[in-house]
């Protein structure tokens, strides 16, 4: 049985390889390498003019590892990270196909603008629990479940910050200070996926509210000391139903 010319190809649709810079072509190969896993040592297998088609060959001893990686890619954030990289490169659509021409995944990095979907660029903060960090180079993608139970994907560009954030994986709730594009949602303004960069963070105090009020009541002259039931008063002014 003859060896296949390549194992996987990333097709960048509606792009001409002869109109792309060498740096841009290198970025396409980096995306493909990250998809297959650098630890699996994918090899260069050529460029074809199918729009832009960058190809890689997986060494025999790593085929099973890559196959397993591809099966998990849709759920572990691998495809999401690749799609964001392609969006940063201005790619509107791309395909990942295997050596037999089978479609593994279709990327749509840049979608048509939606009317009445306002956006703005600002600094802000996000409270939530860290559920994952994808990527191993200068651009990593932090997955967070916010206080509304929604998944938010943020960008981390500092390796030391990324290591520190991983120390709170699925543990304490954190407040992430971010800057980038925010969009209006039913719950108010929220960071647009992969469009806000984490600048710093802090771990939130998870002490019970009763302990917080107890410490406040101990401060002389503090208004909370005069409240008969500070817990209930707090709920009332916050509009929280019993």
Strand content: 25-35%
Poorly predicted parts = none
Task: Tell me which oligomeric state these chains represent.
Answer: single chain
Largest sheet: 5 strands, antiparallel
User: Which strand order do you get reading across the main beta sheet?
Assistant: 2-3-1-4-5
Specify the helix fraction band. Answer: 25-40%
Query: Overall 3D geometry?
Result: elongated
Structural class: alpha+beta
Sequence of secondary-structure elements: EHEEHHEEEEEHEEHH
Number of domains: 3
Please compute the radius of gyration using only Cα atoms.
Answer: 24 Å
Mean pLDDT: 84
The count of DSSP E runs of length 2 or more, i.e. the number of strands, is: 10
| Distinct helical segment count | 6
Distance between the termini: 71 Å
Report on the architecture of this protein:
With 242 residues, the chain is of the alpha+beta class. The chain folds into three domains: 8-107; 119-203, Beta Barrel (OB fold (Dihydrolipoamide Acetyltransferase, E2P)); 209-238, no CATH class. 27% of the residues lie in helices and 35% in strands. The protein has six helices and ten strands. The strands form two sheets. The protein has a five-stranded antiparallel β-sheet, with helices on one face. Strands 8-7-6-9-10 form a five-stranded antiparallel β-sheet. The model has no long low-confidence stretch (mean pLDDT 84).
